[in-house]
Every structure is written in C-alpha cells, then in structure tokens.
Amino acid sequence: LFAVPIKNFFLYRTRSIGQGTFETMASIRVGFIAIGAGAVNFGGAEGPWDHASRLEKIPGLKIAAISDKIPGKAQSALDARRSKSNASVYSECNVYDDYELMLAKEKLDAVFIGVPPFAHGSFDYPIELKCVEAGVHCFIEKPLSVKAVNDVSAYMEAVLEAQARHNLVVSVGYMFRYHSAICRMRDLLRQHEATTGAQLTYFQLTYKTAYSHSNNVNWWRKERSGGPVVEQATHFCDIARYIGGDIKSDSIQARVLCDNHPSGAGRLHSIPSEVREDEVPREDRVPRLTVANWRFENGAIGQLSHGVILHGRKYESQLQAWADGLRVLITDPYTSECTLSYRQGDTDSDTVERHGNSDPYMAEDVAFLKALKSGNPEAVESSYRDAMETYRLSWAIRNASEEPAASA
User: Fold this and answer.
1) pLDDT (tens digit, 9 = 90+) per residue, 335-376?
2) DSSP state at residue 44
3) What are the backbone dihedrals phi and psi of residue 8, each rounded to the nearest 5 degrees, phi first?
4) pTM of the entire structure?
5) Type and span of the H or E element at 286
6) Closest Cα to residue 388, out of 145, 161, 183, 219?
7) 3-state SS, residue 337
8) What Cα–Cα distance (Å) separates residue 362 from each residue in 3, 146, 276, 320?
9) Which of 369, 392, 362, 358 lies closest to 139 in space, CA to CA?
C-alpha cells in the first residue's frame, strides 16, 4: 500500500500571512547544501521555485552559509543576492565546498538540501544523515534519491532514528500540500462525501513539461534524475495520495512512449543543444510520455499522464477529481493563473475560484520553520516517512512503464 496520513483540513492563503507571523523566526540561522547553486535554492529560468526568495522575506532570519561542490557558483549566487534589497539576510553568509565542514564550523538551526537527485538520499551520499547527526533540522527537496526503493527505505530508517534521538524536524518539499487550490479540492471532496455519502470515483492528473529551455543535462538522464515520473511527476504522485488516499500497489499499470518508437511519435525537435541526447545511452534516455493507472483502496481509479512535449517555458497541468454529483478541476497550479472550478449537485454551471495568489513554496518554508521553533516534527505536511511512500509509488510507476509490454 502507498499510504497517506489523514490530517485535519486547513486552507493556506498567502495573504493571511502577515509580518507578525514571521517575527517569531528571528535568530534562526539557515544553511544551504547545493551543487552548482541550483535553481531550487536560488532561482533559475525554469520556474518560480526557489527557497532563498522566500526566506529573504522573513524578518530576523539569517542565511548563514552555503555549501557547494562548485563554490564559484555559490559565490556568484551570493553576490547576486547581496546586490539586492534583502542583502542583510546574507551579511554573515560564508561559502564552503564541503557540507560537513560547514556543519562543523557554523551554528546552524536548519539546512535546505537542494542537490541533484543522485547526490543525496542514500548511504553513498548521506547528506541528510550527516545533518541530523549534527543536530540540524532538515528541509529536503524531492525526490528523495534515485536509488532502489529498498535501499532508500533502509537509509530513511537510519535518518529517522537520528531525527528522533535529536528531536528534529525533517520536511520534504511536496509544496502542493500547502497550495490553497489543492486543499480546497480535498475539502470539497470530504464535504461532499460527508453530506451525500458519495466518495471519490476517478482522479485524473495531467502534467506536460515545457522542455525546450530545460538544459539541465542531469535531468535528461534517468540514472541521475530518476526519470520524469520519479523526479518531476512525483509532485502529482504525491497529490494522488494526498487527495485519494491509499493505492493498491499491485494494481499499477503503465504505458510509455520512448524516443525510438518505430512510429517516430517520440522524436523531439527542440531539445537544448547542451543536452547532447545522442550521446546518452538509449536505456538512460527519458521517456516522452508516460501514462499510468491504478486503483485506490476505496475502489476509485486514478490516472497519471506525464509528457515531455511543450516548447517555451510554461508547463501545463491539470487535476480533475470526480465523485457522484461532483466534479472538481484545478488548472495550472504552478502559475499565478491557477483556477479551481467545480460543478456540484443538480446544476449545469460551474463555480470558479482563483487561487493564483497562493504561494505554496512560502507556505512550506514557513511551516518547516514554525515546526522547528515549536519542536513539533508532526507540524509539517510532508514528513520524511510519508515522502518515502510517494517515492515508492513513483518508482512503481516507472518500473511498470519499463516492462517490455509497456512500450510495445
């Protein structure tokens, strides 16, 4: 089973977070662990998901250190940030080329671990374990690793043992659990079931990547990224569990379209030249399209499709949940154009809500910092153990998609 804990519903809206909420974060010292600085840490061309821009808005918090195997990249990121209006956040920041040295020299309360998937989450690359053994709270970017599920699960147990021993918070970056539209969908489904008895019947998740500017060469190699479902659509795997609950692992099926399909349908025409996909072994190339389906424990059917298919920079994604007498649709949850619409009961019209002001990245960062200040590891929406179940699901889909029949 791929289980998800059920918590009380809450609705996060960015505008409800005021300066007063952040004042309790004063004196927190944060470090980053990166490789090549990293878009998830300090921003980049691909999207709005960087932690530094959020942490800078929290009064009193200090970004005290950056560890990066390519220290010049970290220094460049630091210099760029120091040239902006929030420079004081970085006034005490030092750059290291070894995260263990950073942990030994700096008095850090928390670290944000934003390295490529292959470079953490295992006994070969034990960043998380070293951090919790040093008594430092951890925010970990997804996916947990690229290693085999059983290996990552064993590593997780070692991390959790150290976490419990030091009473630390370990949170994983499944930010959609904090998105107001996702929370609203979950609430609508629960309220509908409570009043009518009608439960979730069908959940469809669609994720289409804009790839023509995706020049991260590691992403295009399954060995280093885990592949599109493990690395990217993992967010939608997590939403599936968060909304729909337990999934029957033996029900998962998948089909895939690869670059070498004889029809030519898998040929991409705008891969960035830096990627040099022709030099990547065929078995290590990312699939162009993956479609998976499964059965939830409650009997509902789930379906995920992920495609490397769009040009430009804007991703397109939708989530659609159905129950008897209810349809809820979320469009573009990654963008400021996000909307939620629902049709309920004996009506032919939709109610439309706009959720473009929701900043789930800020929300997850604030939740993590509040949890470490309160000493409550359960105060985050995505714990390390729960994220392991999403990792397990994403790998089950990838494994199903790599069966010979899946690409026929």
Assistant:
1) 999 999 999 999 999 999 999 999 999 999 999 999 999 999
2) -
3) -65, 140
4) 0.93
5) none
6) 145
7) coil
8) 26, 26, 35, 25
9) 369
